[in-house]
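WARN retry 2 of 3 for item q-0093 after timeout on previous attempt; input resubmitted unchanged.
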Amino acid sequence: MTDLLVDWAWKSTALLGAAWIAIICLRGHSAALRHRIWALTLTTLILAPVISLYAPVWHTRALSVPVRGLSKTAAVQDVNVTFDGTTAELNRPPMWPRAFWLGGVSLLLLRLLVGTLWIRRRAQPLLDINWQQLSNELGPRFGVRRPVRLLKFTHYADAMPVTWGLSNPAIVLPDAAAEWPEERRRIVLSHELAHIGRRDWGWQMCAEIAKALYWFHPFVWLAARQLRRESETACDDSLLISGIPATDYATELLDLSHHLKTSVWHSSTALAMARTSDLERRFTSMLNPLLNRHRLSRKGQLITALTFAALLIPVAALRAPAQGQAGKLTGTVYDPDGAVIANANVILIGPNFQIGTRADLVGRYSFTGFPAGIYEVEVQQPGFQRFRNTSVALNAGQETSLNIGLSVGRVTQNIEVVGSGVPPVATVRTAQAKPIRVGGNVQAARLLKQVKPVYPPVALAAGTQGTVILEAQIGADGTLTSLKLLNSVDAALDQAAITAVQQWQYQPTLLNGEPVPVTTNISVNFKLP
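OK item q-0093 returned
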């Protein structure tokens, strides 16, 4: 979640910056168009994180910095690897940023909920037939085709008129509204019906939710403030277009702002008619005959909606791997028979680290939380040869699968021959150690018969000594099927070592209960006394 917050912090900044540029370019157009741009921008901030979970990922090279310069030796030698039986994760984000963000979101959403409940508990139906008839008469002028609920704040004679609700909107009036003259009633209802016809309350709730989700971002708060301002200006324009004189409208607004006040409980949950902080700007706008006051047509609404929809998916799909979407590596470890190897030690090696995990009981392993780049993977398991892959690519936001097949490990034998001038006698011996179960699947080979090499007299006389290294293949029946000289010390010593080792006999290596051929390295050290 922390990665998602970082990702959408810069995305929201880019979207809001684009909206500011659009507003500046359209400053000669109507307030209705500017309001719709802010409304769609804030709605996009809410929808885009959800859509990004399902939209195809679009990576850009400008934002992606893969891991380079992988050191194959320093990373292995300088860091100790510990294995715990769980999936390994690198740089797991701390919990406090999430808790801090969720705390801010909860407080603002709680404020929204309390404000809504405050209005519901204190608003009672306005049982005045004259108000309802006037509302029904004015509604069609502002696109409101059905009757609107009229409520009043009980015990709040100085409450500012507000619009509240979306599916079943209501106009909430102060308790003293019954004494208002006809002209004030007409102006107040016209203003609030304009809000309802434009569905301003729904857009404002989107802004409040965006503020809650992005409470840490000051530009979101500024955008929500601009949305409310343009909403009031667009309603003012609707009233002036309907034929209400600007001077009469301004006079009523000024008088209402002096005698009524906006409660702190519905400042964010309802649209108040006259906020003192905006009156001067609204008066200047009302008295300017050159301003564009046109309503946003259905065609204009459709074009703006399609424009933002076309921008929403690309922005949601954009990823910055260095900031957020990490790669994931999964796979299964198998033996040569195709059976899984439980508890295998798997190591992921990066440029300055290495981290290990153990495969589970079905051989599965997983590494999560790593940036895009090239890594090394190593598997170490007793009884098997060490596996190493030096070019495993992790892609940001994607899962890489690497199934690993291990080969049975080599058998190693070391024997020392000391030249004493007395030829040793061939011996037959049985290994004292019991067969060892390695990894739960491999039973290692053991030496049953060992013929010790004879130090050649020629080599003794010449004072020649050294270590002869042989590589042999132990067959499924325990005999040596091939023998290869890996280094040459002296012809006589080489031949003596080969002659003796050819007679050795093994108990074969068992893989899952079946004998299998394996390779062994044998070192024969000829040493003078």
